[in-house]
Amino acid sequence: MTEMFEFLEPFCTFYVYSHGLRGYIDKILEHLDPEQRFFKERHERVLAPRNPQEQHSMRDNGKSFRDFLKVGNPSAYLFTEAELERTIIIDDQYMAIHP
Q: Over the stretch 36-60, which tens digit does the pLDDT of each residue have?
């Protein structure tokens, strides 16, 4: 994993998207990237529900990358259309993301 992150790091910004609770994702990232070298600014780069209510809403209503808003600026989208066009999504659940 580290080799892949090192190779891709100059070309992209890493985000984690999950329907799992954020605390669960944080624990995984502690193992994958304990020094926060690749997943910097985790408060912005982990796109996951913070509590069971958000998790339930994501599962019932679906959530796309276009739904995420910038931290501190709730009227601005986190991703531009140009960024979405060059985004690679790796997920173990094919239907988890609804573009």
A: 998 888 887 888 888 898 888 877 7
**Identity of the amino acid at 87:** T
CB of 29 closer than 8 Å to CB of 16: yes
Cβ atoms of 36 and 12 closer than 8 Å: no
Q: CB-based contacts of 8: which residues, under 8 Å, 6+ apart? A: 14
CB 8 within 8 A of CB 85: no
Nearest to 57 by CA among 98, 96, 19, 99: 19
CA–CA dist 78, 65 (Å, integer): 8
Separation of alpha carbons 44 and 78, rounded Å: 9
